[in-house]
Recover the amino acids of this structure.
């Protein structure tokens, strides 16, 4: 017996706003929504595909009444695929992200950022082909 990781759930104040940010950041699309929830993904999951093999999880933003109060214990790491880490960080700043200091120190080859509701994530090394 085994399980599959199918969704990553993010509690938030404004699911539509965070879904829009992450869709732009990751090239995802909204695949389901209700009054207090928005689900985004790179694909529309089917039971058969999920049962057959591990697929990328979707991200579900769920409205909660409380705001974020501490550093996340779990965060996303993303890797740019067609530009540098610094270029991607600049693009994400334009979408509403901020750079944050969580004690990572200087000289790192990644950038620590937060989405519009303060959820930390890292922009890692680029995966863009080198010339």
């Amino acid at each position: 017996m085994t399980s599959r990781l199918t969704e990553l759930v993010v509690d938030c104040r404004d699911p539509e706003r965070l879904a829009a940010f992450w869709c732009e950041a990751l090239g995802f699309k909204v695949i389901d929504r209700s009054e207090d929830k928005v689900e985004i993904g790179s694909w529309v999951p089917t039971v058969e595909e999920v049962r057959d093999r591990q697929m990328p999880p979707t991200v579900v933003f769920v409205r909660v009444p409380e705001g974020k109060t501490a550093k996340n214990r779990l965060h996303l790491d993303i890797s740019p695929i067609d530009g540098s880490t610094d270029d991607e960080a600049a693009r994400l700043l334009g979408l509403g992200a901020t750079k944050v200091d969580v004690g990572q120190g200087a000289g790192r080859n990644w950038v620590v950022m937060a989405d519009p509701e303060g959820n930390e994530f890292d922009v890692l090394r680029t995966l863009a082909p080198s010339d």
